[in-house]
Design goal:
about 80 residues, mainly beta, OB fold (Dihydrolipoamide Acetyltransferase, E2P), three-stranded antiparallel β-sheet, two-stranded antiparallel sheet, about 45% strand
C-alpha cells in the first residue's frame, strides 16, 4: 500500500502589522492569498503567527498539507 505524498504550496505574503492585528481584534480569522500555481488558498491566521514582526508578515512561504488537505506546517523560505 503506497501512501500519497504530502503536497506543498508556495506563496508570497505581504501583510501589514495592522492587517494582522485584525486577527487579535477578532475581525479576521483567516488569511487568503494566491499560491504560485494560481490557486486561491485560505488558512487560519494562527498558522503564521510565529512570523509576525513589527512590520507585519512579509516573505515567501511554503505550506505543507497532507494528501487529504490537512494542515501540516508553514515554513518561511529564503
Amino acid at each position: 500500500m503506497s501512501m500519497a505524498a504530502n503536497q506543498r504550496i508556495r506563496f508570497h505574503l505581504d501583510l501589514s502589522y495592522d492587517q494582522y492585528l485584525a486577527v487579535y481584534q477578532g475581525l479576521a480569522k483567516t488569511v487568503t492569498t494566491i499560491a504560485d500555481d494560481g490557486r486561491r488558498i485560505v488558512f487560519p491566521a494562527g498558522n503564521i503567527q510565529r512570523y509576525l514582526t513589527k512590520t507585519g508578515i512579509q516573505g515567501y512561504f511554503e505550506m505543507e498539507l497532507t494528501a487529504a488537505n490537512k494542515f501540516v506546517d508553514i515554513k518561511k523560505l529564503n
